Amino acid sequence: MQTHLWLGRSLCGILLAIATVLNWNVRGIFIQLFSLPVAIAALVDGWRGGLAVAALSSIAVFSMPGDAGVTRRAVDSVVLISLGMLMGMVFDRERREKRRLQMTADQLSSVYEKVQANIEGMKRVERLSAIGQLSAGLAHEIRNPLASIAGAAAILQRSENMDPKHVKCVEIITNECRRLNGLLTNFLNFARPRPPRFQTVNLNSVLDNVLALASHGLRGKTVSCQNQSPPDLPKVRCDPEQLEQVLLNLMINAIEASPNGETVTLSAAAHDGQVAVHVIDHGHGVALSNVDRLFDPFFTTKEHGTGLGLPVAHQITTQMGGTLVAQRNVEEGMTFSVILPAENGCT
Fold first, then answer.
1. Which CATH class is domain 199-345?
2. HEC profile of 196-261
3. CB neighbours of 155 closer than 8 A, spacing ≥ 6?
4. How far apart are CA 254 and CA 256, in angstroms?
5. Which residues of the chain have pLDDT under 70?
6. Could you give the CA distance from residue 289 to residue 301 in angstroms, rounded to a whole number?
7. pLDDT score at 21
8. Are the beta carbons of 296 and 255 closer than 8 angstroms?
9. Whole-prediction pTM value?
10. For residues 326 and 336, is the Cβ–Cβ distance under 8 A?
11. Strand 224-227 and strand 199-201: pairing?
């Protein structure tokens, strides 16, 4: 506002100097010109700016040489001050209306985003429900003959006179049966996950357990794991076994995605009655077009993945009243966040 007052004062001075040189023979024209800086100040700074510059203009009017009486000069001053006040009030009202409309537009945009997110969530729930029912039926139908195959292979393995080639074949059958049985277990966990057994949990101890388990699952990779969580995290109400399962799954995924020499970071922070646990890697990441599909069943970016690990983790987190979020890092890699309500809403 100081800049605009200086500009108004300068314009008034220039007009007063010109009027003095012309000896105010064209007084009426210059009185009208004095309204120009008043209007500019009102437009930029509202009624306060208009009033301030109008006051300066009034001083200039009273300072004019000429034969105009005090009454005429007072009338001109009142006109300028009224002009500054009225124009400023009009422009202030327009600015308030514009701000109100902008706030309404922002609120509508926020509501629209929430509605879209809810719609996408409902679609995901419908897909999960349909695929879950199909998975449960298939798992039960396949498990019985698979158990028979595994049992027959075990009987053959006990034979002492088996040809070495046959021994190798039986080992392949046994290993593949074990792998398929694990896949079916994931199917059933996804289709009918057990309900959580809620407890009030010290989150720091859960994170320490997850870090210890993840460090033993490096599988020959030179990837380091570190915990950067503060020691005074609030307690959360959850199923500690299921939470460890979710976080360990995320840690193993991060380790597998990280090149040798990199670090996988486990961190947590409390904010607004929630606790967010982040698993951060610096690996190859996921294409932006695929981020929204990571929690869809059977979608995977791994060569030998089943596409059920993240959907199961998402479902478990949701059952505990939390949220599982995936984000691409600014530079490289991914961040998966498990967000849970803090016990008693503490922060």
1. alpha beta
2. CCCEEECHHHHHHHHHHHHHCCCCCCCCEEEECCCCCCCCEEECHHHHHHHHHHHHHHHHHHCCCC
3. none
4. 5
5. 1-36, 46-47, 50, 57-73, 75-77, 79-80, 83-84, 121, 124-137, 140, 186-187, 189-192, 217, 219, 303-306, 344-347
6. 12
7. 44
8. no
9. 0.53
10. yes
11. unpaired
Residue 243's CB: how many other CB atoms inside 10 A?
Answer: 26
How much is the pLDDT for 18?
46
Identify the residue whose tokens are 């460890």.
244
Give the HSE-up count for residue 335: Cα atoms under 13 Å, Cβ half-sphere: 15
With contact defined as beta carbons under 8 Å apart, do 103 and 109 qualify? no
- Kindly report, residue by residue over 294-321, the tens digit of the pLDDT: 887 777 777 666 677 888 888 889 989 9
- Decide whether 119-191 matches 199-345 in CATH topology: no
Listed by start position, the domains of the chain span 2-98, 119-191, 199-345
User: For residue 16, which phi and psi values (nearest 5 degrees)?
Assistant: -65, -40
The CATH code of domain 119-191 reads 1.10.287
Helix or strand holding residue 326 (H, E):
strand 323-328
CA distances in angstroms from 96 to 43, 91, 104, 121, 326, listed in the order given: 13, 9, 12, 37, 40
Torsion angle in degrees (nearest 10) through CA of 300, 301, 306, 307: -20
> Cβ atoms within 10 A of the Cβ of 181, count?
15
How many helical (H) and strand (E) elements, i.e. helices and strands, does the chain have? 8, 7
How far apart CA 108 and CA 104 sit, in angstroms, is 6
Q: Are 266 and 278 in contact (CB under 8 A)?
A: yes
